[in-house]
């Protein structure tokens, strides 16, 4: 190494380490001139020796004034190096960087100042040290000394200018470092990093969309920062990326981003959740297929958010949910995780929020419609929860659960049998004694609408005919009222009404099937026979009842029946009273009911109605004049009414025995 005195005058060496800044600055100016002389003489050996002197004796000294002198000396040397700058930068930059971490704030300040001057001179040559300087500067952005922070800010601006102009800057080597630093939570560091992401996104020759997976997760971290300004900056940057992705989707790795967004939407941070869902909603338009691997997870996130207390989250969740519905219906999710999806929906069926439970059921119905083969092996696991939903306090949830159960039953024959069996068990359970009376009509009408009233009623009656008589009686009374009044059963009523008159075997078999269950409720049986116009059999039933089975329960049923006879559904029956010679057993049946009833409102109603029967026709009947022969119900229908009457009597005996016990 050349002698120190031959490199620099002694006064320069002394003043470089002086505690007075002006003396150090003056020494640096003299040093700059010396460097220029060495450059002019092309004395590379002495240039290298001078740099080593500044590094080893000054910049690496344990004395702070020496370190400050070394920093200002190295910066001055770069100013004079000219064509040798790039050659000697590897010797100059590292010791300056080391001082960024100095314990004394003054040294850190001069290190920033020195690096600023070095970068200003080196420009393009400085790019090779970009990552190291950026990393050090990132830490200085959170420095506790305001002067150091300001110096770091100036250097930061210069570096951004250099990167913007440089063709040698490598984004590929920078992104891993940026991603690592984005995990830091210091607010100053976060502002520093967002600023760099914004700058890089604005450089025409740099397409940050290609590197978005490396930075997006870190930006989402900032959306939950306590500092409002940081949250706003991060949100603005993320939404700008979303706009860019919408404009040039071919440059976006949607598959990798979808995993990040799915994870980020599952958070307590409202801004994070809202922003992630906005991105996911855009994905349903730009690249819907990439959401398939996350389908189950998205359901578990979106469905609770539909009822979120934050109106903005609620709105975007509903929109996203609708769009994912559309994607699913389009067939884009051809191999979704059926088991995971149904498990997610099963969990959300227990959610406290009604909109969430309702939408969960709608998703199950959608899966049964558009992904039937995928969910078919897994559906048994969720069926019990569907039946529990039938007991939900929300009528909307009940109706939707029945829609789903009906859909399931229509797809698989064994599911239809299961539906009937489980439904009856649900009505019978002790923990839901009021379900039949409170919701029975709603449930049965909905299932008639979904499954078809004839199929549903005939199968239900088949199950009931061998069940507990008391339960059957309650069930039949509810079913009978629906049969007589509900618009959903209009076709079934028409078929029963014409069964005997038209001698239709299928209709008569249907009547017989219902009768086997209806026989446990006398009032329901009579009304069914009235509906089918089996008046002769009706009169026989009434005679049997009057002989042995009149009690309060029967009187109540007859009371309700009389009121029903005044409803529009029995208008045809009332018109038939104008022709008692054609329907003598109808008249006999009504008078039989009148005789059984005690004098009451129902008795007065029926008496008033019978008082409208033409007296001349009555007189002719009493005299045995029958211009038209009444219909022979048994021969016309092929039904064995004698055996039916016997079964009715057996049912009444069971009822009577039960009441005694």
UniProtKB/TrEMBL annotation:
<dbReference type="InterPro" id="IPR011989">
    <property type="entry name" value="ARM-like"/>
</dbReference>
<keyword id="KW-0677">Repeat</keyword>
<dbReference type="GO" id="GO:0010008">
    <property type="term" value="C:endosome membrane"/>
</dbReference>
<dbReference type="InterPro" id="IPR021841">
    <property type="entry name" value="VAC14_Fig4p-bd"/>
</dbReference>
<dbReference type="InterPro" id="IPR026825">
    <property type="entry name" value="Vac14"/>
</dbReference>
<feature type="domain" description="Vacuolar protein 14 C-terminal Fig4-binding">
    <location>
        <begin position="434"/>
        <end position="613"/>
    </location>
</feature>
<dbReference type="Pfam" id="PF11916">
    <property type="entry name" value="Vac14_Fig4_bd"/>
</dbReference>
<dbReference type="InterPro" id="IPR016024">
    <property type="entry name" value="ARM-type_fold"/>
</dbReference>
<dbReference type="GO" id="GO:0006661">
    <property type="term" value="P:phosphatidylinositol biosynthetic process"/>
</dbReference>
<dbReference type="GO" id="GO:0070772">
    <property type="term" value="C:PAS complex"/>
</dbReference>
<keyword id="KW-0472">Membrane</keyword>
<dbReference type="Pfam" id="PF12755">
    <property type="entry name" value="Vac14_Fab1_bd"/>
</dbReference>
<comment type="similarity">
    <text>Belongs to the VAC14 family.</text>
</comment>
<protein>
    <recommendedName>
        <fullName>Vacuolar protein 14 C-terminal Fig4-binding domain-containing protein</fullName>
    </recommendedName>
</protein>
